[in-house]
Automatic annotation (TrEMBL):
This is Diguanylate cyclase. The chain holds residues 383 to 658 of 658 of the full protein. Residues 24-275 form the EAL domain.
Length: 276
């Protein structure tokens, strides 16, 4: 009986490995196909200056429009793309497309805004990242000061010489760098004050559970300003949250209260409204 039991366990183990392996392989093939066949799309979520109420930027958010499954959320496929290394090709596409779209908006006569692009850890750690960014800006004709790269705390908070070099390279190039989901990762204040970072993005968990996290949100806002950084609140869903942020002098907001991420043509309509 014992022997039988173990054998079954082993079989189960083996079949679950091959199943996972197969789905990773399938996923990789599907992701490659998606890239080749243009199944990826960027949606853009507006970011507003809280005082003036004007759109000052948009965050580019990746969407996979799968022919059979419909829209697949980045939370599902980004980790896999990261695991397979395909994130590098996908990330290049995202950055190119976001810069191209932002330049197009400027060419159409809208007030210049900043486009934010999320970087994955693998992308950020490429030794030629700065050259890649420079080349994309060059190809699309977008000015560096109209691009912002979002990294997470864990990518930046390390003493390694090459990370400092990358951040300084990006600063010298003239692009902005922000820290995404700030407050949820592992971070060190020592690095925060030393690194050339322009903006903190307060994670939505602190905004949405505002009452419990009031002191934290206030501290992040005040700390950003002391460090000469801007600060934006993510995941703003209610007027009450916005009023609080306004009173605390948070610079910018992003969230469903104003707008969810939208296809680019919907942004045109929003830009038009504020031009009048
Ligand atoms: P993120 O960079 O923190 O992006 C913000 C996420 O919060 C987006 O989810 C957005 O739709 C959502 N959000 C915005 N406002 C609200 C709100 O008021 N309430 C709530 N509940 N949610 C809100 P999304 O688009 O599903 O993206 C999830 C994550 O996937 C992103 O988090 C980012 O880490 C990653 N991601 C998205 N696009 C890319 C990309 O092009 N490259 C990389 N490397 N990662 C990406
Ligand atoms: Mg982000
Ligand atoms: Mg975030
Ligand atoms: Mg995130």
């Amino acid at each position: 009986v014992i022997k039988e039991h173990y054998r079954n366990d082993y079989k189960m183990f083996e079949s679950s490995i091959s199943k996972d392996f197969k789905s990773i392989l399938t996923m990789e093939t599907e992701l490659r196909k998606a890239l080749k066949e243009g199944q990826f799309e960027l949606h853009y979520q507006p970011q507003k200056n809280i005082v003036t109420g004007r759109i000052v930027g948009v965050e580019a958010l990746l969407r996979w429009n799968h022919p059979k499954e419909g829209f697949i959320s980045p939370g599902t496929f980004i980790p896999l793309a990261e695991k397979t290394g395909l994130i590098l090709e996908i990330g290049d596409w995202v950055m190119y497309e976001a810069c191209r779209q932002n330049k197009q908006w400027q060419d159409e006569g809208y007030d210049p805004i900043i486009v934010g692009v999320n970087l994955s850890a693998k992308q950020f750690h490429q030794s030629d990242l700065v050259e890649r960014v420079a080349s994309i800006l060059n190809k699309t004709g977008l000015q560096p000061s109209h691009l912002e790269l979002e990294i997470t705390e864990s990518m930046a908070m390390s003493n390694e010489e090459d990370i400092i070099q990358t951040l300084e390279g990006l600063r010298d190039l003239g692009v902005y760098v922000s820290i995404d989901d700030f407050g949820t990762g592992y971070s060190s204040l020592k690095y925060l004050s030393r690194f050339p970072v322009n903006k903190l993005k307060i994670d939505k968990v602190f905004i949405q559970n505002r009452k419990q996290n009031e002191a934290i949100v206030k501290s992040i806002i005040h700390m950003s300003h002391s460090l000469d950084m801007k600060v934006i609140a993510e995941g703003v869903e209610t007027e009450e949250q916005l009023t609080f942020l306004k009173n605390e002098r948070c610079d910018e907001m992003q969230g469903f209260f104003y707008s969810k991420p939208l296809p680019p043509k919907h942004l045109n309509e929003m830009f038009q409204k504020q031009t009048v």
